[in-house]
Design brief:
Lipocalin; mainly beta; about 0% helix; 8-stranded antiparallel barrel; about 550 residues; 8-stranded antiparallel β-barrel; Porin
Length: about 550
């Protein structure tokens, strides 16, 4: 069984997959490139280059494992496919004999038609830098992948150069972050890698859990494992399978990680292979965290400037690290105010908080007729407690911005929200809120939204206009305020609802940045009755997005 998904223009990356990976076999064909020189070559590392010539030339990137003796081992090359269809995969076992490079029984996956060819032969010559003796180039050819859309009448030439990415170290702190891609074949993907090497997210219609770890301190490569899970419709026979392979980062001009390549093939279960090429989501500026007495869930009122009309009821959350998100409600959308707060002073029990630089954003649903964001919001909040060193019982303050109607700050008064008060018998943990939740079309253009939370914190869901929802819910250790961190929250095109070419896309949210934020459970008679998710995100290009989900448990 093979899977294909609708194409989308403007993708950040490509995702290539299939579900029929053939085994290795014998093969023949291809001309020798030339007699090998007399110096033994060692091809291990990350490689970049080209395949083909003229109009048929395509880029290629991949890795070669040096093996136990350094003379070669497993390799995987990702070749740009014709028509910008994604990346074909070329992989197998490769060895060098002095300078001669050869691999037989090579497997080729063609993304254009989702077919595999086996038994290819790859031959070439490796050359070293005279000054360093390091192997720096490989040129040769591989035989035609017969029976696929990539088939040729003669062997295809290739030229590889040792990538500069080999000069970067592989460290857990470097690879930590959220990465996102979109694919012509195989759907879209998003996953988060933590500083301890845990990987979680979604690839196509499957949830993934796995690990990412440096292969060695002297290598730019990371070892990757991915376990796939999901229902029989979205994930199909890939559910329960395991992937294994490598990853390597891409870096920007300031040598900061900007993207990732992940190349894997099946280790357990149904045959499958992935080429993931994605960009790293921009992370927040480094902000000094605090354990604030304002952490929790709040409800209150706004006092609008004289002559200004609008919503006056407000709800929201403040995280222990100072992240905050407040919103007003209406029958068709929400206004939202979110960002980062810092203590006004360095006292152990701060009672006043200000907005951090330009981090606070206001979304006005009536701005420009369709809604828009306002930056440069100044936020000033005071904390009131009934006793010293206790959690806040009331928040008061104001926010303002240069174009504010009425010309005066908007005042607010907030109290603890009883709907989100943790019952005395409840302990906050992910198991407490595992389940399904539904929200009517408020904030989603009139479309119903269903969200599910799994026991591992995976957030999945769908909207009635063709969006899949993905994300990760994380319990905040040591926090008993009914607050959960949300990471890698975003929207994907639903492959089960293909879009007719030339028509408007079904999921207009799928092109937005990855979001993060906070979730809280709603309680009724001591039991969880609903779930609220408040998230926001901003891309490197300045594109902004936010989500307000308030759903009842089903």
């Amino acid at each position: 069984m093979r899977f294909s998904f609708p194409a989308r223009s403007g993708s950040l990356a490509f995702l290539c997959l299939a579900a029929a990976l053939a085994g290795c076999g014998g093969g023949s064909g291809g001309d020798d490139v030339g007699p090998p020189p007399g110096t033994q070559q060692y091809p291990g590392g990350i490689w970049e280059g080209t395949v083909g010539t003229g109009a048929a030339q395509r880029s290629v990137v991949g890795f070669i494992d040096g093996g136990v003796d350094g003379k070669g081992g497993e390799f995987y090359l990702a070749r740009g496919a014709a028509g910008s269809a994604g990346y074909d995969g070329i992989y197998g076992l490769l060895r060098t004999n002095v300078a001669a490079v050869q691999a037989t029984g090579v497997t080729y996956f063609s993304v254009q038609d989702g077919k595999f060819a086996t038994g290819l032969t790859l031959r070439g010559t490796a050359s070293s830098d005279p000054a360093t003796g390091k192997t720096v180039s490989i040129s040769g050819n591989y035989t035609s992948p017969a029976g696929t859309a990539a088939a040729t009448s003669s062997p295809t030439t290739f030229k590889l150069g040792l990538s500069k990415l080999n000069d970067y170290p592989a460290r857990s702190d470097l690879v930590a972050g959220t990465y996102r891609g979109a694919g012509v074949f195989g759907g879209q993907w998003v996953f988060t890698v933590t500083a301890n090497g845990s990987l979680s997210g979604r690839v196509g219609g499957c949830s993934v859990q796995g690990t990412v770890a440096p292969r060695s301190q002297s290598s730019a490569l990371y070892t990757v494992t991915m376990g796939l899970s999901g229902d029989e419709i979205a994930c199909g026979d890939r559910a329960g399978t395991q992937q294994a392979g490598v990853a390597f980062l891409r870096f920007d001009a300031s040598n900061k990680p900007a993207g990732i390549w992940v190349l894997t093939r099946n280790a357990i279960g149904a045959d499958n292979t992935y080429v993931l090429n994605g960009l790293k989501d921009p992370g927040p500026d480094v902000i000094t965290p605090f354990t604030g007495p304002a952490a929790g869930n709040w409800v209150g009122t706004l006092q609008l400037p004289a002559g200004v009309t609008g919503d006056t009821a407000v709800w929201g959350s403040v995280l222990p690290d100072g992240g905050m998100f407040f919103y007003t409600n209406s029958s068709f959308n929400h206004n939202a105010l979110y960002g980062q707060l810092l203590p006004f002073d360095n006292s152990a029990t701060p009672t006043r908080f200000l907005s951090d630089k330009d981090s606070v954003r206001l979304f006005d649903r009536q701005l420009g007729g369709t809604g828009g964001y306002i930056g440069g919001v100044q936020f000033d909040m005071a904390v009131e407690s009934t006793a010293a060193n206790q959690a806040a019982s009331r928040l008061t303050g104001s926010y303002s911005y240069s174009t504010q109607p009425g010309g005066y700050p908007t005042q607010f008064t907030l109290q603890r929200d009883p709907l989100y008060a943790l019952p005395a018998t409840a302990t906050p943990n992910i198991n407490l809120i595992v389940g399904s939740y539904r929200m009517p079309g408020v904030g989603f253009g009139g479309h119903t939204v269903d969200v599910q939370v799994a026991v591992d914190g995976a957030i999945t869901g769908a909207t009635t206009n063709g969006c899949l929802i993905v994300g990760k819910l994380i319990h905040l250790a040591g926090n008993d305020a009914n607050l959960y961190r949300v990471e890698a929250f975003g929207y994907l095109e639903d492959p089960a609802k293909p879009v007719t070419p030339g028509t408007t896309i079904g999921c207009e949210l799928s092109t937005g940045p990855s979001q993060s934020g906070v979730a809280s459970a709603m309680f009724s008679q001591g039991r969880v009755s609903g779930l609220r998710i408040l998230t926001s995100g901003e891309s490197k290009s300045g594109e902004r997005a936010h989500s307000v989900f308030v759903g009842d448990k089903r």
